[in-house]
Design brief:
With about 170 residues, the protein is of the alpha+beta class. The chain is built from six helices and four strands. Strands 1-3-4-2 form a four-stranded mixed sheet.
Length: about 170
């Protein structure tokens, strides 16, 4: 009787183990930030923002902004924090981001945007900034450097941060 019980228990454990493996294979896994986008895809979107902003600046006879990876990292962190819900969608923390810029600068500005459900989220964000007087003023400002960070969360929401810097 004891041997039968042990064999049945081992058989049950084997079946349970197989079920656990099957369940983990078919169950949705936790979704990290930017689940559907490789880091290179996000980088391409960030470059597209810079390109579209520079096209607009050129139409106004303004010099292009150089994309700086150090500034982009600061922008990316803010976008990721908004996408994760760690901070609300806002300019909160603007002064801390300004202080974290390691480049000596004269002036600093910021644009943020949020959207979802658009086939071209970059164009939607940039066009929204251009239509907004305050955001457009930053785009047209006397800046020479920029940093752009984009994050996408599991809901499909895109968060954009563009920082503008006039270096010394």
């Amino acid at each position: 009787m004891y041997k039968l019980w042990v064999l049945m228990s081992l058989g049950f454990l084997a079946v349970l183990s197989s079920c656990a493996n099957l369940i983990s294979e078919i169950s949705p896994q936790p979704t990290p930030m930017n689940i559907n986008l490789a880091p290179s895809a996000l980088s391409d979107l960030e470059k597209a923002v810079n390109q579209q902003v520079n096209q607009y600046r050129a139409s106004k006879k303004l010099p292009p902004l150089s994309l700086d990876p150090r500034i982009s990292q600061i922008a990316r962190i803010h976008s990721e924090n908004m996408a994760k819900g760690k901070v609300k969608f806002s300019h909160d923390g603007f002064e801390a981001r300004a202080k974290s810029i390691v480049i000596p600068y004269q002036s600093f500005a910021e644009n943020v945007a949020y959207n979802m459900g658009y086939s071209d989220p970059v164009r939607n964000a940039v066009e929204g900034w251009i239509k907004s007087e305050g955001h457009r003023k930053n785009i047209e400002g006397q800046f020479n450097l920029t940093g752009i960070g984009i994050a996408k969360n599991a809901k499909g929401e895109y968060y954009f941060t563009q920082l503008f810097v006039r270096s010394r």
